[in-house]
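Quick look at the format.
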Amino acid sequence: MSAEATNPGAHSRRRGRPRIDLRRLGRAALLGPAGRDRLPDAIGHVADAHRAHHPEADLAILHKAYVLAESSHRGQFRKSGEPYITHPLAVTLILAELGAETTTLTASLLHDTVEDTEVTLDQVREEFGAEVCYLVDGVTKLEKVDYGAAAEPETFRKMLVATGNDVRVMSIKLADRLHNMRTLGVMRPEKQARIAKVTRDVLIPLAERLGVQALKTELEDLVFAILHPAEYERTRALIAENATAWDALDAIAENFRTVLREAGIAAEVLIRPRHFVSVHRIRIKRGELRGTEFGRLLVLVGEDADCYGVLGELHTCFTPVISEFKDFIAAPKFNLYQSLHTAVAGPDGAVAEVLIRTHQMHKVAEAGVIALGNPYVPVEGAEPADGERADPTRPGWLSRLLDWQESTPDPDTFWSSLRAELAQDREITVFRADGGTLGLPAGASCVDAAYAQYGEEAHACIGARVNGRLATLSTVLCDGDTVHLLLAQDAASGPSPDWLDHARTPAARIAITSWLAAHPEGTKIPAAAPRRPAPVTADRPAAANAVVDLPDATVRLAGCCTPVPPDAVTGFAVRGGTVTVHREECPAVARMKSLDREPIPVTWGDSAECRVTLIAESFGRPRLLADLTEAIAAQSAAIVSATVEPPTQQRVRHTYTLQLPDSAGLPALMRAMRDVPGVYDVSRAQHPAATS
């Protein structure tokens, strides 16, 4: 593979720090460490990059780590023929340029010593402390001799568990993989493809979730060049053919600078070239690209409020494309990303996409968790946890991953579940009934929420309320929903195989699959489960307590809404001189009026007796029907007719037409029915009726 193919992202960094010269670095490394009074030439690049972000950093520990790494790797060479020490140096430089703190850089210099040399973890701990030792151990691979084909998935499991305690472990791994991908051209094509696929399926999604966009975008381009060489070459040629595209963006950028300067807003306006994969995706989406679509404009300001000030000025002085506006400052992405996104159209109709953020937001957007430094520096006045370090950078998706991986001892199941988890590219937050929150992947259902909140106790889940309304477990949740999960009291209840159709998270799928495997007979339907009873009907009495001002008219209460005193009602004359009385909010009233049927005023008479139809929503359990009828009888209501629909997803719908001695007792009757265990909603009938 050509040097260009192994470095497709080079065009997007031409204005930044020059890449390290590995040949020069190799020669410097072969000379060994420098004198005691100065840093070795080989880590001069690292020192300069580190001091740019941390001017007061103590470089003595880096000097010490380099000496150990260089001496332990001496005599080892990479497949390219370069001294092996060039690899940990390059990985450390990547992290230093992103702003990693000294402990991370120290561990990065040593990250391959325990794996590939005689250096032991005990030696690292003794010379550099427990923190550096933990990071080095976290990225050390497991031996194939001990694990065989399971070595790779088990290494990732070990690394992710370590990342759960310290996200800097994954920072080092991502930088390690980036340098390996940059130099992958010396490998056999089949090995290049295998490594590129793992990078695509696991490392790139992890970089996205940790917010390290600088590493993610270059990894995407490197994978693109290996796995899709033809598409990559077409994209490279397209970018080369549009080398003058920057002229249009330069002109718009200069207009931005003028507008913001006149508005008194201190801002830096930069052009951000799109990387190869981004150009490829936008070409597929939009077809032929215009010059302004090969890059985006980045506006950097000092304060959050200035971001909105810039937005207002640009939308005032240019034509905004409203559909392109997104506010990730007020609602940050789950990977810490914050920015305002918009687009404006120029006089010639060319559209330029614009990113507006503060300098700190930009640093986090590029480096993600790396930019946050050491998450374990104690906060003044804060009390330490009981022997544990709480990582403020640990996101919800990582917590979920660590929970379900404990239930997957099989390496193949873990590997496939990990890829499925990482394939989810967006996260939502839902609120629990107790005020807590759950982080779930987009597309998650109530099934996923149940297992995220209750673990294996979710086997007994029988339904949910979403935003206060009864919902099935298959209901897909949206960002900001409130979910109240309902658990059965019967310990023998368990999940249905249908739940697998609605589960999106590995935690839910693994738990359901394990339960079904342990209970091949499934859940037995109890003998006393609700069944459809034969409808019991009685002659409908005349509605003597509903009075209309029509001589000799027969009054009938509508069966679609079963009005009772003191409901607001209206009537309509039908065939045979009968007046049908409806509740005013009944859909039949609107339908009658649309047919120009004249409403007839109705008042309630002195009779207190009434008939009403109630619908009870519940979840199936033994003796439910008996308990409901007992509750109805206790309120002195007579059952005129009753039906129970066949259960679906453990939901059962009961419809009762009841005769009450006094309409004033209706609220108490409905409360008594709701108090029956398993019943979650009781409402008045409100279903369409045929036009009379």
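Next, a different chain entirely:
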Amino acid sequence: MQIKPRQNLLEVWQAIARHSFDGGEWDWGESGGRSSVADAERLLCLLYPATEITAFRLDDPDTTQRDVERSLRSAGDSSEIPGNLVKVLSDFMEQHRGEESPTFAGGHYFAPEDPDQELSKEQREVGVVDSYSMSVTLCLATLGFLKVYRGKTQRASTLARIDRLREATSARLTAAMVSLLRSFTVNVVDVSSDQGRALTRLLGQGRLSERQVLHRFQERFKALRAVISESVTLGLDSDVTDELRNENRLFECGWAWSLVKGAPEVEVEPQTAEGIGKQPAGIAHPTPYLYFTVVALDGIPDLFSERTLVLGLLTAEQQKLADALRLRWEITQQYWSAIARFGDGTWPLEEIPWRTTLQQLESEYFSLCVASILVHDLVRRRATDDDLTRTVRVMERLAERGRITSGMTRDDPAIGLHDPGVTLPLLGSEALGPAMTWTMADFSAQLLKRTIQLCALSRNITSQDRLRGLAEDILDHLWQRRIGEGVGVGLWDDVHAVYPETPARRGTLSWSVTERVTECMVAAHALYDQPPIRSAELSQLARALISESAHLFGKEQMEQAAPAPKSPQGEEIKGIEADLRRARLLVDEQPGTAYALALGVLTRLDTLARARGDSGSQGV
């Protein structure tokens, strides 16, 4: 199906409003409050488009567009919607705050590794990187929303509620940023260890010896190793930076699944410390997870986006924390981008599926995670044509292997990517009770998001056409997976609708997949909002046509007396002049449009010449 971000978002909003609002009052349902991740995802389905796309703004009732208001009819009219959102957001902030500090519980997203065991309440309340990252995005969206809406309402009770919500949101944002700093980790390993040998095999791909891999690793990451050792201090154990200085050791960096065991507290000002409460002790094994690293990398850029800077959403202390997170964001992208493209021949990323080094888990999902980080890096540094072309092919192969663009075979293992999804053991969780796991079932939505991001990045017509076609195929696949009846109709996720071999849909709807699809539509809006790719060849042809059109138009004006302004001939001359002027304005940015306009001018001028009986011949 064609990507129509506005129409698709309106459909999603209509389904969310129908599901979540009952007579204008928000209904969390049975799952509400059981996971800060799921609740944040649900709110972001509304708030993220509303703060990222001007046409979807809800913070100023006077500018709310009619089709947007119609889609949210269940939430009230344009003047009621922002007030209702303030109530819902206030409820979220209160629901996910403990006695002393904001909480970031994984809740029902956590599951026991042994299905016969049950997780304790303490385990379900453990914070998780998904919640930290989602909270950064949600809090910034909320602060921006409140900043505008506060100037549009005069009700004292509403203003007081806005001020309380703003204070709670700022505290949650700070706590989330501190938690992200304490979840970042660098895992240093000996080459001779199991993990070291696994990383060596991954990078060498059977073509390089262990010694060659170590030498190339030393050369490639010498500068990055120095930056981490000297600049990354907040929230990172000093022993790690000391070990990192040994160039004969390998390392990985990124985010663990939660606060790292032994991670020192981040020093903050006394007033801030009072707002965010006591920083909890970490339990996660100091090992980067590809999935949680991607999640963190998705949320951190919101801290230094243009909108955040223009609206001045961060305090001075939050800005310092944001700078520290930005450094880790850049380091992590550079590291995994280099790992993905390590060596001179075939990239490790092109060897699908990717195998993790510590747990030796193998899946196309991990290939997608590495590709996602590579996309982040390509956007940051502007990709070369070679990097982009090879990454496009990786995306196409992942879509094939995930059976999105190819047929499913009997007992196909690829079905596991979608249902039940890929399961991660959460190392360190056993310290509190039964070992916990985390399952990712958003392969298709994540693939669509990265494909659209690459499409927006590409300035190569062939690559962009391939990516746009792939994105349309993935969206068609996802759109068929919307729930067709019962709770959550119009939302996600019904895998059985696409793959009849899977069990019929069970349980509640997936806010994870629904939120990812919403992100995809926001990314697609940004794609279509940018200028089209400029073709040098078409630009040259357009200039030639404009030149000929201008010359013949001048000649036409000499051949006849000036027509009456309101006569048909006069209107035709005015139209030709307007089209010619517009063609000149567009020739640099939209040469195809300029070409078409100039061609139309030539056609109309020839019609006028033939009407006078002029064949265009200059005589012999």
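DSSP finds 22 helices and nine strands in the chain.

See the schema section for token definitions.
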